[in-house]
Design a protein that fits this description.
By secondary structure, the chain is an alpha+beta fold. It folds into two domains: 13-167 and 228-317, Bira Bifunctional Protein, Domain 2 (BirA Bifunctional Protein, domain 2), CATH 3.30.930.10; 330-414, Rossmann fold (3-Layer(aba) Sandwich). Helix content is 39%, strand content 21%. The chain is built from 15 helices and 16 strands. The protein has an eight-stranded mixed β-sheet with strand order 1-5-6-11-10-9-7-8, sandwiched between helices. Strand 15 and strand 16 form a beta hairpin. Helix 1 packs antiparallel against helix 5 (136-152), helix 1 packs across helix 11 and helix 5 (136-152) runs parallel beside helix 9 (230-246). The radius of gyration is 28 Å and the shape is elongated. 41% of the residues are buried. The model has no long low-confidence stretch (mean pLDDT 92). The protein binds one RNA strand through residues 3, 6, 57-59, 62-63, 80, 109, 111, 113-119, 123-125, 127, 190, 192, 206-209, 258-260, 269, 276-278, 280-283, 304-311, 335, 364-374, 380, 382, 384, 386, 394, 396, 398, 401, 403.
Length: 420
Amino acid sequence: MIRAVKGTHDLLGTALAYHRTVVEATRRWAEAAGAEEIATPIFEHTEVFERGVGQTTDIVQKEMFSFTDRGGRSLTLRPEGTAGVVRAYLEHGMKVWPQPVRLWYAGPMFRAERPQKGRQRQFHQTGYEVIGAAEPEVDAEAVALSWRILESLGLRGLTLKLGSVGDPADRERYNAYLRERLEPHAERLSEDSRRRLQTNPMRILDSKAPPDRELLTELRVRPMLDFLGDAARQHFEAVQARLRALGVPFEVDPAIVRGLDYYVRSSWEIHHDRLGAQSALGGGGRYDGLSELLGGPPAPGVGWALGVERVALAMQAEGLSPVPAPGLDLYVVPLEPELVPRALEAAAAFWPELRAQYALKARKPGKGLQEAEKKGARYAALLGPDEAAAGKLTVKDLKTGEQRTLSPEEVKEWIRGGTA
RNA sequence: GUGAGCGUAGCUCAGCUGGUUAGAGCACCGGUCUGUGGAACCGGGGGUCGUGGGUUCAAGUCCCAUCGCUCACCCCA
């Protein structure tokens, strides 16, 4: 049997209902904030991510699904959404739109990791980007929006961790400090971290390897926050002040680093307390240099992404139900075999005002009602010789038991009136 | 990529220390039931026991390998 590829899943039933609930919540709140939806391709030229996300990141080094197309171009299934959105911003000259431009999106992302709870190879994110503004207000706006989306879904066990990774110059000073501090003890670091010492020392802070953690504690390595320049520090404080004013609870996490190189200044994650190892529901940050990394003019930006599957897991852990998919309005039951075609015609005549389906085999009335119930229909319509002759249907409300024999037009009126 | 746990019907599982033709519940199909449902009862379809090899008179059960799933490491949404 051919099965879905490792780390991918068919989405249906309850899982899809959770999925839609998260996407629709994002749509509602993002559009409330004035954002326009964008759908970028799920694959891009590999360099979009190599240059955008960063050569030294785990995502680029070991998690991308890349392939060569027939023309010899290197393409990559998007591992995240922001780089593609900024590429689109540049490609469509959105810098001439009224600034800043607010965009939101939802769609699949791909990372070649070993699957586990809350981690799949194809997963889904919703995201929000504000491009063309450097003010701390938009950082706070973005954080507050993602926080409120999660709250609106009913989630309680949320923690917002806010940090700052500073400006590039601050990071250079910090990286120099880290190298100087850690290099004498390099042999005690994990293999990955020894490599990071050369390529990107800050990423060592992200390591959870016990030897790395011990060494960092023992050396009393100072956090990035101590190295913020004046501009970044003022920005960070302003963001905190705006968040307090908006009533968004957060804790400052001096160690927050983020796995994507394009982040500067604000950087945050939202965690849930009952998710297991992969506890981040979402994260984001400011990426003022990204446009230039992609070959564009300076264009400051800030944004976030939520992991749809993880939010769904968190909702389930808290016993929260998704918005259910709408069921059938009407199930048409032919009472005689020769009336099956008439049942199709009757059901088809209700589309699309009513969700109507019909039985392919003649049923006795009792069986027909039972079947309608199993199909999840609110109403059953019996079509027997009498109804056929009169051009009517005997329609029964399966909840109340109320029954009427009506013309198709009257059926529409009754049901639409009843469900309005 | 590393480690651990688990693979019996569409789903949830039973199958004792290896011993007839591998079972149950749910679901599905049909009947009891020729114009009114949610019940009950009866019947039916559906399994190469993940796969391959080995031990044995005999393997769903023991051993090895392999594949898959899950969780964890790593990292992140």
